Amino acid sequence: MQRSPVRFALALLALSVASMIGAVGPASAQYFGQNKVQYEQFDFRSFETDQFEIYFYPEEQQAVEDAARMAERWYDRHSRTFLREFQKKKPLIFYANSPDFQQTNAVRGQLGQGTGGVTESIKERVIMPLTGSYGETDHVLGHELVHSFQYDIALRKNNEGFSLRNMPLWFIEGMAEYLSIGRQDSHTAMWMRDAAVRGDLPTIRQLTRDQQSYFPYRYGQAYMAYIGGKYGDATVTDLYKMSGRVGLDSAFVYTLGITADSLSEEWKQSTRDAFLPATDGRTPVDSVGTAVIGDPGADNQLNISPAVSPDGRYVAFISRRNLFNTNLFVADAETGEIVQELEGTRSNPHFDALRFINSAGAWSPDGRRFAFITFADGRNEINTFNVQTGEIRTRTAVENVGAIHNLAWSPDGQSIAFSGLEGGLSDLYVYDLDQKNVRQLTNDRYAALQPTWSPDGETLAFTTDRGRDGTNFETLEYGEERIGLIDVASGEIRTIRPFSTGMQHNPQFSPDGRSIYFVADQDGFKDVYRYDLDEEATYRVTELKTGVSGITALSPALSVARRSGRMMFSVFSNGGYSIVGLSPEETKGERMTPKEEASNTAALLPPVQPKGDGLVGSYLEDPTTGLTDVDTTQTTKASNRLRLDRIVPPSVGASVGGPVGTQVAGGIGFMFSDILGHRNLSVFVQANGTIKDIGGGVFYSNQENRFNYGVGISHQPSARGRVGRTRSGQFVQIVNRIFRTQVGAQTSYPFSQTNRLELGVGGTRYGFSQTVRAFNRFGQSQEIDAGTVRDPIYFARTSLAYVGDFSRSGLTSPLQGGRYRFQVTPQFGSRNFVSVLADYRRYFYREPVTLAVRGLHRGNYGANEFSGELTDNFISETLGDPYQAGFVRGYSFNSLLEEPNCRANLESCRVGRLYGTRMALGSVELRLPLLGPEVLSLATFEYLPTDLVAFADAGVTWTNEDLTDLSFSSSTIGADATGRLGTGSTERTVAAQPVTSAGVSARVNVLGAIVMEAFYARTFQRTKNWDFGVILRPGW
């Protein structure tokens, strides 16, 4: 939306510069905020291929060389699909594993474990971790390079007017999924079957408006597969190019000749026709076994990664039981009753998160302890906790293993096997719990995932892509997952592939060791099977309408009790996951004959008969076209050169008349960083009027190490003017200027993601000037002597702060957790004093409301802190604000003008209960999300998220010469002879009493750009009992 007023443009520039500075500064530059911790320092190097600049560190070189070959092949594929070539090489930054990736500075903000990769628009970098499975790494890379082509189109100068904002997320991500996976995908097909069975296939309009209910990746892929199949794959990219110019709805008409509504109905009917007949005769999820955790009929549940205890009495699993926290639970395996919950990350300082998307935990043989994987200190750790008490007993960081997946506790209780990633490659490891050492069982490029012990402890079954028809590393042709068996003593490996097609993974031994249970999608449906090792025969255990699955296609979903044989598995239905149990008798299954091995047409996204051969299908079946060798003999150290990221758009405006006269104002900002995001530089210049009103600043930060630091210098003039008339009738214009020049350095040391220590030093100079111009009756002016101008004021300062932030944010304010900041800042110079800050906030969430509590103290202490000038802004603290309500709603300096007793003594009024050298505040709020996303709010309306708030505020200010009386007083604000506002006493020792208010407010998030709060407060120390006001800031 276009806005033309000059003041708005200048305000926007100031906000842009402020955000730019905040973006490049270390975490310590924030008042609160969580930390991205650089636990490790990576020795990044680079080499070039035909189309890419590759950045990596030495321990991942082998895997990155292969990833670079994948990238060149994907470039060839996507360039043919988009009919486009890059004009310059794109940067690809690879990390060896997910814990390393989460430390990257190339992406702002925190990265969750669900983020498989990022393509950003500033430098058009692809940043991603290696997965340990070449097939999965290839898919993620192909997905991200679709985004790279999308940005290459959108950001080029010859495409001015092209807007990504016209495109919904399902369209962008669905295209990337389709062009990197194709139409054959049992995981997405499972989602579509589920939606078809329950009659909830979304229209394009629903997909665009309700991303919470309809996962953009899965449904977007299904829609793109339909468009590519019916109209040809070339239309998928044509649709993107047209949508950026005319919007998606119009692009459907121009490109496909059909409206979005008609296309939606076609897709829905095609999906029903393709999937519903295939479910005939198959078992509904709510009719298989016993639903133990969750209700298969409920929507959008998350109950995953089951691990059943050896005796079958308990099941450990990962679940999200509220809006914010995914946690580990232990439940009765018969009734589902929760018997234990792990102390979560919100209150446990020892780890940042549980690993849950691609990992399950393991029980000790006696069933007393449970092992699970956490993210802590920049790596994965193996934690064990006492199931009875919930106490974490041990924390183990395995040396020389970057990431850990899927634990398996040995039958003798002496060791834990796991899949580990080192250098981007997955291998099997065994950790000896007594000797505290680790043994590596495999050492190659094949995937080695999801290990499980045989009952005799001699063999590990695992998921792999090795064996006949397995992965070919020369052509990078990937074998489908199958089961491997490794002799732990000798290291000898053999593979089992019960079906000739499809994924077969998540092996589990039967109690007698003669069978292996596993999950397979050989017919397009993900079900549980049993393979008899003696008979070499396969038995079908389940035949579900939807499927047995975790969050991703390779996530663990199956567990079998080591002694009892009870089986637990997670099933997908109604857009979520529940856990089902089978008795040992129910796990035997029905024997399959070879002819029962079907083609997996049920995994094919409609239309079943696509138009032509299909460009996407053709290149996915062709592993060699575009595949080139890469030369890594000439690697160089990654460059630290700063490159321009963006320019804060220049703005120019003018104002005519007013107390400061005619002025021209404007500004511009520049933001630079290196390719890895470690070093950042920002420069800005602002001008407001004359040459003396030019200001600017330079800020540099370095975040390469755990110690983040930044330095900066700035000069900021500000001017205030007034006009008046002399006794002779001559008009006079007076302009007062303050010039603030600052230099400073700051460093922070994060202890974890949630707390840090900050140290800062700096200096500030305040200069003053006054210009007086007299005007005659003809409008002519001359500058006259302004008299004595105030001497400059200087301060040198040091600061030390301890900051914590474990809050979870809502749409207008925090909803859960807490924040705190404790800071001491000695200041020396024209004033000598020590500033003290203590700010503590807690948020208690009980769906749907949050109880928020805050306590704040700010004070300036020292020998000459009080000079008799309470209005000295360098040492004063306030509860109010000149223009809007401050800390205590209903009180501002302007509100004093409305008080009868203040009109006679305005100067004293301005330094009353709202002004002192020390202040304390207490606030309580009850927050209710009224409008917003369905998962959070009472009413669904995402365009204007709104919270209703009931609040109570109380605050008090005082000086070192005041007594303090914290008792409630309903006396209204009035002026006394000393300048303190109390009950009329003329003694200096009059008590400084609090001001209080209570009321209701509504906080509104306006287009994601600003939070506005409108309040109606009962003020207890004002003549005007009720006050209405507006505050432009997020809730505390």
Automatic annotation (TrEMBL):
InterPro entries: 6-blade_b-propeller_TolB-like, WD40. Residues 1-29 form the signal peptide. It comes from the Bacteria. Pfam families: PD40. Keywords: Signal. Belongs to the TolB family. This is Tol biopolymer transport system component. It comes from Salinibacter ruber.
